[in-house]
Every structure is written in C-alpha cells, then in structure tokens.
Amino acid sequence: MHTPLTDDTKAIMLLCGVFGEDHAVDPLTQTEYNTLARWLFNQQMRPGDLLRQENWNAATIGASFGIRGERLKALLGRGVSLGFAVEEWQRNGIWVISRSDEDYPERYKKHLKDKAPPLIFGVGDRSQVQGGGVAIVGARNVDAEGEDFARKSATLCAHNKMPVVSGGARGVDWIAMTAALEAGGVTIGILADNLLKKSLDRDTRSPISEGRLLLLSPYPPNARFTAGAAIGRNKLIYALADYGLVVSADYKKGGTWTGATEELKRGNSLTIFIRTGENVPLGNKKMLELGAIEWPAVDAPDRLDQQLAEVAKSTERNSVEEKPALQMPLPLP
C-alpha cells in the first residue's frame, strides 16, 4: 500500500525532481529551492499552493532572485511526466517524502537545517526513516584489521538493537551493513546513486521485505554515480545517526576524510568515534587531533548505547554554536 503524495510533495517534486530522460528544463538546485521556500514562507504560502496556476505569476514576481518565470512555469507544468515517474517508482516499491511531510526525518531538520534535502527517495520500512544508532563509515579499500573491526562493531550494534547507518559503498560501508543484517539487526543505507538498481539486488531484496533494511537517497532513483553526489550524501549519513564511527580514512583525500572532517567542524557535530591502533591509516590518527574520540573497549556487550553516551558526555567539545542560515524556523518547507 502506497502513501499518497501530499500537495506539498507533488509541488517540490515538480520543482526539484528529475523524471527520466526529460532534460528540457533544469530543476531547481537546493539553493534555488531554499530561496523560493523563503519567499513562500514570508507570503504565508505552502509549496502545494503553486499547484494552482493563479499563484504562478505571484511566485514569479515574489521570487525575483534569478529564477526566470518561464523556467518556473515549465517546471510546474510537468504534471504528466511526474505521474509517469511516480507510477514507475511505486511499481518498484520506491516512495518519496519531502521536507514538508510530517514523517520527514526530524534529525535532518535539526542537524542540517536548510541543508536538509528537499526530497528523499526510499525503499523499505518507511517508519524507520527517523534513524538513530551508529553511522559506520570507511574507505572502499580497507585492510583485514579494518574489515574485522567493521564487522565486529556492526554486529555489536545489532545485538544492542542499534541501527547501523552507512553509505552502501564497496568496502567498509557494505561490510558493516552486511554484518549487522547477518546478526539480525537493522541497517539504513544512504546511497549516492541508483537506488532502484540496489533495491532489486539479490542481497537486498530479502532484508528489505523483512523490514530490516531501509535504503534512502536524496537523488533520483536512477541517478548515476558522481564523486560530488557521494560527498554530498556523507552529511546525511552522520545526520541520521546518534554517533559516527570511522573505521578507516586516508589522510586528506577521499570521501571518508571529507565527510568526517566536515562533521567534526560542524557547530552541532555528532560525537565521532574512530578506530585506533598501531596499524590504522594516517587519516585515523589525524582525526583524533581534530576532535574524534577513540572507540572505547566495550565493557559489557549488552550496554553499548549507554557506554557510548557516557563517553560522549564526558568528552563533549566546547564548540561555538553555528548560526542558522536563515532567521526563521528551519528547515523551510
């Protein structure tokens, strides 16, 4: 049974969505959409109000910030293409939520503010979209010690009923996700590309149907991989979890280093734990200098959540709170 799309979500999809091979008009970027959303907020309007043609001219006038009126009207006029796309996605079990929906991840709103993606596509149990648990990340190329650490950490999370959040990429991401599933746990994968293809893989179909694997992406279900997309989704991995755990990171290169250091510099950063030891990569050692915390020796296998909370509380960093990007309730619809 599919949850009907709200009018707000329909409008946001028309404005920001990509439908098949139709590239006649460029969808709004997140920055452009935020600007439009700010105008709607000031006018006491909702995105769904733009589904009525009488509001198009008002939006064009009020949103005189570099978005041409013809472009806005062309985007909002893609109703037929949207209908075909949604029908195909739903046929393959894909659902979509927007920043205006009640079940949009509250963690994204609080942690990312206006950087929270306007749209999220998903496959699996939608009720698990609120996240929690540990974000386990690391390099694609990882040594045997790193593999073993990722597997054991993910298994421990599963035994403590803490979801494992990761990126679904080759290497540490998939090792951790697979280990958690094999241990009977819940895993949330936030993908940078091809949500549709991944959801149909033999390895993912069963845990999805069992309600133990949730796949999410801020990108269209058929999106191809780009390095920029992979780096862009890293903040979504951390933002959906209670804690981060970096298994293996190359120093000053790669998505793992970029994503972890970005999170460590955030004013409202998660607690980021890191694997330590004699043979860890240089990036792991350098992250300790940036504020990451050594992954603790587990004192009791059934109280991981409590132990991590205690360690995080005792090592809280006195960082300056980030100023919100917009002086109004965030995120915008």
TrEMBL record:
Q: Which ranges does the record mark as transmembrane?
A: none
Q: Which SUPFAM superfamilies match?
A: MCP/YpsA-like
Task: Report biased composition (Basic and acidic residues) as residue ranges.
Answer: 313-324
Output the Pfam families linked to this UniProt entry: DNA_processg_A
What is one process in the GO biological process aspect for this record?
Answer: DNA-mediated transformation
Q: Which residues form the Smf/DprA SLOG domain?
A: 96-274
Cite the residue spans of the region called Disordered: 311-333
Tell me which family the UniProt entry assigns to this protein: Belongs to the DprA/Smf family.
Q: What is this protein called?
A: Predicted Rossmann fold nucleotide-binding protein DprA/Smf involved in DNA uptake
- The species is Candidatus Kentrum sp. TUN
The taxonomy runs: Bacteria, Pseudomonadati, Pseudomonadota, Gammaproteobacteria, Candidatus Kentrum
